[in-house]
Design a protein that fits this description.
Blueprint lengths: L3 H17 L10 H16 L5 H8 L3 H17 L1 H16 L8 H41 L4 H9 L5 H17 L1
Helix pairs in contact: 1-2, 1-5, 2-4, 3-4, 4-5, 6-8, 7-8
Length: 181
């Protein structure tokens, strides 16, 4: 049973074969096959979002070969009209076929788990820092407003621009002042 990625990969290989009349999976150095490989590497990298290592596994090539091919692609797409036309035709053909997977699901899941873990850690640190800040700012506001008259504090609390948290803190100021007066 083939995976979604293998199906998409084979769809891309077949599209390249159809357009270029070349075999990107051949191991020879004929220019037309080399160009077809460069197109395959770039499409796997940009459309399927595969890593260099994963593309290397699929094509039986070293990841450095994939990197070299992607860089050569970037040069050829600018300078070689036939190469550019072949690439654009392959992209049009691929766009007509619905790819079943646009990402490498195992890499995606691994990245997702890592990012989710980092997010939870950051969220925890943020909540602790925010709680400490709010506690410190409450104490600062209480100290700052302790000398202000109660009528001024009440007018501030009645103002529509006074936020919920400030309103609660000013209520604490009033309560504290009543206790000690």
């Amino acid at each position: 049973m083939r995976t979604l990625l293998e199906n998409d990969y084979n769809t891309i290989v077949n599209a390249i074969k159809t357009v270029t009349k070349s075999d990107p999976m051949s191991n020879n150095r004929q220019r037309r096959n080399v160009d077809a490989r460069f197109i395959l590497f770039k499409i796997c990298r940009s459309i399927l979002n595969l890593s260099l290592c994963r593309i290397g596994q699929l094509t039986n090539k070293h990841h450095a070969t994939i990197l070299y091919g992607c860089r050569q692609f970037d040069d050829l797409i600018v300078t070689d009209r036939e190469f550019r036309n072949n690439y654009e035709a392959v992209i049009l053909l691929i766009n007509d076929v619905e790819l079943q997977s646009k990402i490498d699901s195992t890499e995606f899941l691994s990245d997702y788990v890592t990012i989710k873990s980092k997010y939870e850690d950051l969220k925890s640190v943020h909540e602790k820092t925010l709680a400490e800040f709010v506690k410190g700012s409450d104490q600062y506001i209480v100290g700052m407003f302790y000398t202000v008259s109660n009528s001024v504090i009440k007018k501030i609390m009645e103002d529509s621009g006074c936020g919920k948290h400030l309103n609660q803190t000013l209520s604490k100021v009033l309560a504290t002042k009543e206790i000690y007066n």
